[in-house]
């Protein structure tokens, strides 16, 4: 298999202007007036053996800067002419949406967009299908690859059958820092007594050094994730989960009879920029886990789905997808609000986020299942699609002057 590499990159307005939109609050967006991490990621890709098509998806926190962000990424890609890249921005998305309308999948457009982690990753899945890739590898723009055989390692075991008849159709590596450490460690805080996700996450990663090399896992890393065609053509990402779409994909795969495996010999160096706002990240987590718990409960009423329980997701994220997540979130927000120097954001979360997260979950938990049931049909229809494939392969060009905000200046005679 010659995998397609997909790199989502997220951009925001100038530093200091933080977005609070639910769907476009990202952990590490790059400011349009900064260099960012994408260049270093691409530089590390240059030396990877067997590198084929690299799809770079540009998402922005504000539609007013999406074309500026696209131009910034285009300039960065120009520094790496040896990499066969496809830049996927607003123009390509417009072409894709028009094609979905033509093939009678207009109802799927909302879940395949440049807004939100899950929808952006679905764009990557569709791009791989249009390019007829038998496998794809997701890489984040703040990752560095130090192993020239990175893709060879990614493909090892993918598609193979285990002794019990299961196939490895999705596998994740793991993140390390520059010193090779893969577990997170910080000083325990009293304010986090009900929200010690780091402990569970470290416990989940304790299997990295233990045999066998491939082991079923409750966690996944979206920046080091390999998917076989038989997985990504049948299971989509959830466009309504606000954060942690990679771990959510583990749940989605299990619901549909599959599993994600952790490869203890496949890793990537993670060099994330400074977090924009810890409070906003916590708010996203509150929405994420409340939504996840509701989604798993709703799935119990669906006779065609395999049941996924919090117990099966231990040690992480199991404790955060039980019915206790709401009161634990409120207690944590109050404790952080009282003890933090910037406690106002946490107190606001304590007042409204838990209630609003429950309403968000009630409103949207069925959406994913409606979307997912149509996904395999969409992927079968779009696989190797000639009009889109010729566009993505550069055989014809997108008329960017027809995009809103890109019309040429008309001067009077």
Mean pLDDT, to the nearest integer, reads 91
Please state the overall shape, judged from the principal axes of the Cα atoms: globular
Q: Name the CATH class.
A: Alpha Beta
- Strand residue percentage: 5-15%
Helix content: 25-40%
- How many helical elements? 12
Structural Rg: 21 Å
Structure commentary:
By secondary structure, the chain is an alpha/beta fold. It has a single domain (4-275, 367-396), classed as Alpha-Beta Complex (Spore Coat Polysaccharide Biosynthesis Protein SpsA, Chain A), CATH 3.90.550.10. The protein is built from 12 helices and 10 strands. It has helices spanning 38-45, 66-78, 90-102, 117-130, 150-155, 197-204, 229-232, 245-255, 278-299, 325-339, 344-382, 386-392, and strands spanning 4-12, 30-31, 54-60, 85-88, 135-138, 143-144, 170-176, 214-216, 225-228, 261-270. Strands 1, 2, 3, 4, 5, 6, 7, 8, 9 and 10 form a 10-stranded mixed β-sheet that branches. Helix 3 (90-102) runs antiparallel to helix 12 and helix 10 crosses helix 11 (344-382). The radius of gyration is 21 Å and the shape is globular. The termini are far apart.
Topology overview:
Elements (H helix, E strand, L loop, with lengths): L3 E9 L17 E2 L6 H8 L8 E7 L5 H13 L6 E4 L1 H13 L14 H14 L4 E4 L4 E2 L5 H6 L14 E7 L20 H8 L9 E3 L8 E4 H4 L12 H11 L5 E10 L7 H22 L25 H15 L4 H39 L3 H7 L21
Parallel strand pairs: 1-2, 1-3, 1-5, 3-4, 7-10
Antiparallel strand pairs: 5-9, 6-10, 7-9, 8-10
Helix pairs in contact: 3-12, 9-10, 9-11, 10-11
Nutshell version of this structure?
With 413 residues, the chain is α/β, with parallel strands linked by helices. It has helices at 38-45, 66-78, 90-102, 117-130, 150-155, 197-204, 229-232, 245-255, 278-299, 325-339, 344-382, 386-392; strands at 4-12, 30-31, 54-60, 85-88, 135-138, 143-144, 170-176, 214-216, 225-228, 261-270.
